[in-house]
Design a protein that fits this description.
43 residues, mainly alpha
Length: 43
């Protein structure tokens, strides 16, 4: 079994790139909301 994580891709996957970008933006938005929610308890 060979893991081809670090090999060069043979073709682009724009849908995968957009999906990963949306997941990252959603995760950062959730983190920002959580920090703003918890800031009232820590100050």
């Amino acid at each position: 079994m060979k893991i081809n994580l670090f090999e060069h891709p043979r073709e682009d996957h724009p849908a995968l790139a957009i999906g990963l970008l949306m997941i990252a933006v959603f995760a950062l938005a959730c983190q920002d909301s959580l920090v703003k929610l918890m800031s009232s308890y820590t100050s």
